[in-house]
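ok so i was messing around last nite and threw this chain in just to see what happens. nothing serious, just curious
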Amino acid sequence: MTTAPRPAAELSADEARRIALRAQGFLGAPDRRAGVRGVLRALGQVQLDTISVLARSHELIPYARLGAVGRTTVEDAYWTGAHAFEYWSHAACILPVEEWPHFAFRRRAYRDRPHWGHELSSGAYDKVIDQLRDQGPLTATELGGAKNKGEWWDWSDSKIAVERALMHGEVVVTERRSWKRVYDLAERAIPQELLHDDLDDTECVRRLVRQAGEALGVGTRTDIADYHRIKGEQFDAVVEASGLVPVTVAGWGKPAWADPAALATEPRGRHRTTLLSPFDSLIWERPRTERIFGFTHRLEAYVPKPKRVHGYFAMPVLAGGRLVGRVDPAREGKTLVARQVTLDGPKAVPAVARALREAAEWVGCDAVAVERVNHPELAAALVTELG
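result:
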C-alpha cells in the first residue's frame, strides 16, 4: 500500500466534492463547442452497457453534462472521423483515439494469457483477418455468425477469433450497429501516428493514472486505479511520477491525490440538474459515491424484482451539486413513466421534476406520469411541479 508523502493541500469534504463535480463536467458552463467529443476527451472513457431505458448509457453520459444534445449527434461524435474506439478499460468503454497507445500494456497482457477457455480452431484467426482486409468493417454475424447453437456464451469460431484479435489489438471496434460490434483492422481504423505499442508498461500506466486523476479531480488510490481497472501495485509504482499531488481530505480517512490544475482555482459556476446513468463515472464506484455524496446507490437491474428497493434502473438525480433522489424511468409511447421516485425530502421535489421534464423532452416524450413516490405525501407536490 502506498504511503503518501506530505500533502500539498488539505481539503474539506465540500471542497473535494466540488473539485470532483467540476472535473467530471457538472460544475461550471459546459464546453458546448467541444461538444460530445470534448466530454469524451475530458472523461477519458464512456462506459457501454446493454440496458436501454431512456437511452443507452453512452448516450446518457454526454446528455447529463451538455443537456439535450441530439442522439444522432452523440453517435456521430463517437463513431465518425476516427475519433474513438471501443476497448476494455473500466469495462467495455468508448475511448478517445488518442488513448490507443496507452493501452499497449493491456494488449500485451492479453496476448500473454488464455482467453475464457475458448478453444480457437486452426485457421479461424487468419480467416477473420483476411475477411476484414478484403471486405471492410463487419459485424460478427457478417463474419460468419456470432454463436453456435448452445448457450449465449457458446461463441462461433469467427466470434472467438475476432474477439481475440480485438484484445490483441489487431482488430478495433469502430462503432456499434444495432448494438452489434463492428470490427475493422487496426491498421485501417487507427491513425498511423497513434498505431504503435512503443510505450512500455510503466509509461502506459503512468499516463492512465494521470488521466484518471485529471478526470476525477481528486481521488484515493482505489478511486484512481479503478478508473481504468489498473492494479493497486501498478498505481503505487507510477503515482509519484504521474504529476498528481498528494492531498488530505477531511473525513476520507485515506491518502488521496489530486490534479494540480484542479487545486489552482476554486471550483465555481452553475450546477447541472440531471438524471445520472448508474454507469456514469461520477457515481460508478459505490464507496466513492458514499464518501463524496453520502449517498448509497447500486444498480438493481440484476436484483430479483421483489427485493428491489428503488427500481430496475434507478437513476440518481443530481441537483445543486448533491444527489437528492432517484427515479426509475420507463417509456410508454410518448409518456415518460417514473415507476418509482425516491425523494430525500420536500426540497428535492422541484429538482426531480425539472430533471424528469428535461429527460422527457430529450427522448421525445410529451408527458410525464408518476406511479409511486417513497413519500406519498409529496406525490401531489411532484405532480404539480411537473405541470
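not much to say yet. The mean pLDDT is 93.
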